[in-house]
């Protein structure tokens, strides 16, 4: 077992990065916010905090586009007849993200535009039952930079599947929101346990994107 | 969002149960113990605590066999040339579970016998890159009862994939051990968040197995 | 090895059937037809033959709805920037099924209605990188009844993945069209090799659906 | 649709090649041969033809080792209690490849040595429910060169999954054997339909391996 001081931090970005926006949805999401609407999924943070997370995440989207870094928008959806909820209603979560409800749509503030890479999912991991890996292979992606929510559920489990699939995974900790402060913190530690240097701040990623842009101009 | 008092606990066992022994390995495992050998993976608990976890887990194996409940032994393995570690060495874990080392073998104390269902895996989730679902479909499994370790890694992520695959998942909390007390506790809460009633004690499962045995005799 | 006369035909439908309409798309599809448009994918059969296949397939859709048998519409799609074609352009097929082109839409004649189960895919098997299995698990599906095209590509490989996933698979041979007569015939034989009794005619399936409807009224 | 003369043949090997030996098993296999034992799976070809296929395949193994090209041995296995046959006995195939029977072992003649990459599978595609992709990612594989059998079943469907996973796939047509001459021929055409230049002869692959060896010496 490694002693803590021996765990070298990996480079922040290895090879081709891809920015992944997990479930920035009007309701039942994470970094997003819907004043007054619970959305079936518990979420933590004041309205002000959530607006700030959204704003930082939006900055990342804009900087990624500017640097030619691919951005992928994930959206959790469930069929109206409930046939595909599986076990998702057996715990703390209630009905959420039903298709075609306005509250299920990707948040306008996050900068999603028609034509952007959009991947709907019906479970927590953005890899589970989706074409995410098909897209990532096409993009020759090596590093996934995750934002959104819930930190402890969809972000965490997307990170795990990315990790198991050999991707370098980073979580932008000031751009994710969890079901509770405790769960949020524990999951960030869990992700750092899997990949040293996984936990990043938006400011670091912004700098990296600017450097990428500059290197392409050179 | 459900209020805590409204979250009904699900039946402990729904349909066909299967007992899953996650990584009871001499080293780099969990419920198992190897005095003096670190195994490349951090684990928490005194030797005495781990021996007790192992003993309780062993009781479950014997009771499952007695009641005709299928038991599946999962074993994490990695090729000696290191080609399949992926990102697993990028965080807190060091080289672990190398094939053919005595310390990688399933612990003798857990009751594994040649001919038992045995599933080797190369990542954390027992579903990832394995034939576990093929076996579970063949067994018509509906409820997975998880023991072993690490609580926060292999048990947690196997639970998540079982959950996403529509299985009822239970974690026997006094038969799992984590990388730290904190991570162990947080993961048990995460699993309970996903499926109310997921957290169980060995004594409850034992009672359930005895009832199953009795119902078959009737 | 079984002698041909010993291969018992399985019941046509086992448990819950689901009717799967594979790639009935205006162009680049199969059972569908688009006069004068090649669509990037070779297809065989006169316009008249294809119209008849479509008509028979449409009858199945209507009968399935009438009997309460779930119907799933599969649609192959590719991103306009070509990032997700993978190896699909390395052989006989040219660019096909680009998102948002009118010719990629599900054929109007097949009876698809908004709200129906719709699964977009980016490869040949309807299971690959999609949520089909999530839906089938939710429907408790046991038998898949395949129509559409291409017989030798998307239908064949969807059948194989269904077969590997333990589903009873049936191909309605007068409701599928292939890339060539030879490939169509060979694939039907390949599917029958995997599951005796896989090859069915639309008339048989219609009868079965009517019987299901009658049994529910009883 | 491309006209036949416009379909450019792809380079025979793109990037890192990996030689895949599919089910060279004493019985129930393909390129292998077991005089007088049927093995539950139909296979075509005289004993002499099969011995020659095996010999050519063995040459490829030796040349791959000599050139530092990774070799992966796939082996189909089924649990003795039959729990994992799924639908595999519903068609032309009878019980085959039961674990631990001498006839299930990888053929001695093919050059398999303890320590080689070995992947057991329980279905047809070598990707389905196995860690093959984990290994291929670790090897940074880009081109899969398939040998073994059955041409029309395990080789064909492994090719398809490799193709869907963006690998360049090649089938060594004089090193594969099918369930019938007809099925063997049709499947070779199907693989060529997917990737122009997929069909290769052992002599070509041998030359390529020698060139790889020479380039490393330079």
UniProtKB/TrEMBL annotation, chains A, B, C, D:
InterPro entries, sorted: Isochorismatase (IPR016291), Isochorismatase-like_dom (IPR000868), Isochorismatase-like_hydrls (IPR050272), Isochorismatase-like_sf (IPR036380)
GO molecular function: isochorismatase activity
SUPFAM superfamilies xrefs: Isochorismatase-like hydrolases
Keywords: Hydrolase
Hydrolase listed as a keyword: yes
CDD domains, per database record: cysteine_hydrolases (cd00431)
Domain (Isochorismatase-like) ranges: 18-195
One Pfam family in the UniProt entry: Isochorismatase
Name of protein: Nicotinamidase-related amidase
């Amino acid at each position: 077992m490694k002693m803590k001081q021996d765990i070298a931090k990996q480079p922040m970005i290895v090879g081709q990065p891809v920015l992944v926006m997990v479930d920035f949805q009007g309701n039942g999401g994470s970094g997003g916010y819907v004043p007054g609407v619970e959305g079936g999924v518990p979420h933590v943070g004041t309205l002000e905090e959530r607006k700030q997370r959204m704003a930082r995440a939006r900055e990342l989207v804009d900087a990624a586009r500017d640097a030619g870094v691919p951005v992928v928008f994930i959206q959790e959806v469930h069929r109206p007849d409930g046939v595909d909820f599986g076990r998702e209603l057996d715990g703390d979560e209630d009905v959420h993200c039903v298709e075609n409800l306005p509250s299920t749509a990707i948040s306008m503030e996050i900068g999603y535009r028609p034509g952007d890479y959009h991947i709907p999912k019906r479970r927590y991991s953005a890899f589970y039952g989706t074409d995410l890996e098909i897209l990532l292979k096409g993009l020759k992606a090596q590093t996934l930079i995750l934002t959104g929510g819930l930190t402890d559920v969809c972000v965490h489990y997307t990170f795990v599947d990315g990790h198991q699939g050999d991707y370098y995974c980073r979580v932008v900790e000031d751009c994710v929101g969890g079901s509770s402060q405790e769960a949020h913190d524990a999951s960030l530690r869990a992700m750092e346990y899997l990949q040293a240097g996984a936990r990043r701040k938006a400011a670091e990623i912004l700098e990296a994107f600017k450097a990428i842009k500059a290197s392409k101009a050179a």
